[in-house]
Design a protein that fits this description.
Length: 323
């Protein structure tokens, strides 16, 4: 079964707008939504970056059916694993069976604020693995402690616990992270239709587990208008690893963007009003092995996007979603 979701981008919108968009996503027929968890926006021109967990609490009271997850939270630097264990448990109590804890190894952009040294990628994955273990320890209930290489949690008890614990999804852009997801998580999150990452995930224990893929699109009246919108509101679309993970400040991203060709910024974004392009992009993820695909509409034109997807795109997947 294929499920389709909507990306709530905190870097672009205010808390009130994110709540409204979650309600609209539910109303037009999306199955789930994933909200970004940033301290800073990517660029100086992006106007927002609210505290995601406060917005999650508000959304939980504004929706009835939609599932909601973090896309994604880093539980190993800016947040303690104990705090995320408690936050996710509370969110799951407010949305029984409908909350998803998406985790990743983080970006320097958000995590450097604590003053800690930004670790190498391999160490960040080790920290993520230990953090997941600590979260699961606290979710056993009762008084728990964890004393590991990176984290110490002493005599902690989460008193408000859900009847059903949330699944943990791990974001991966490289094979080692995909193997980690297969080994310790309940599912995988990727931002590209990489079949090879699915294979690594499955070989390491992920066979049969959910696989989430994120697509960035820009619906507009023309491809040129869409490209202009992306370059203005989401120019970081053209920046890849390791810069996405390692640059510490929004103005550093702006400096990189100034050196990029305009075509580079939009080359991986689905642009314009042609339904087939959007449908084919989703099918590319399905063909690669993903069963949950969520869509990020770049720029302010969210309401027209919702109408377009409800009328022209979601119906193409009705049978596979209902199977």
């Amino acid at each position: 079964m294929i499920e389709l979701g909507y990306a709530l981008l905190s870097e672009e919108f205010s808390p009130a707008e994110l709540i409204s968009f979650a309600q609209t996503a539910e109303a037009v027929g999306f199955d789930f939504a994933m909200i970004s968890d940033h301290f800073h926006p990517w660029t100086e021109s992006q106007p927002h970056s609210p505290f995601a967990w406060t917005v999650i609490g508000a959304i939980s009271q504004a929706i009835k059916r939609l599932r909601l997850g973090t896309g994604v939270t880093c539980p190993s630097m800016r947040y303690s694993p104990a705090l995320i264990a408690q936050a996710a448990a509370t969110a799951s109590v407010m949305m029984p069976g409908r909350f998803i804890l998406g985790l990743g190894s983080g970006e320097n952009l958000n995590e450097h604020i604590t003053g800690l040294h930004w670790p190498a990628a391999a160490q960040r994955l080790d920290m993520l693995e230990e953090a997941i273990g600590a979260i699961r320890t606290l979710w056993r209930g009762g008084w728990q402690s964890h004393f590991g290489k990176y984290f110490a949690i002493e005599r902690a008890k989460i008193s408000t616990m859900p009847t059903r614990l949330p699944p943990i999804m791990v974001a991966a852009a490289k094979p080692r992270a995909a193997r980690l997801a297969g080994r310790v998580a309940d599912g995988l999150i990727c931002t590209a239709p990489e079949a090879d990452l699915i294979k690594e995930f499955e070989k390491s224990g992920g066979k049969g587990k959910p696989r989430y893929g994120q697509i960035t699109v820009c619906y507009a009246q023309s491809e040129n208008e869409a490209a202009s919108t992306v370059r203005k509101h989401w120019p970081n679309a053209g920046i890849g690893l390791p810069l996405m993970a390692d640059l510490p400040l929004p103005n550093h991203f702006d400096n990189v963007i100034e050196l990029m060709q305009p075509e580079k910024i939009t080359e991986d974004v689905i642009l314009g009003p042609e339904p087939r392009k959007h449908i084919d992009a989703i099918k590319q993820f399905v063909d690669a092995g993903f069963d949950h695909i969520y869509v990020h509409q770049a720029g302010p034109n969210q309401q027209d996007f919702f109408r377009f997807f409800a009328d022209k795109v979601l119906p193409s997947f009705t049978s596979s979603r209902a199977a």
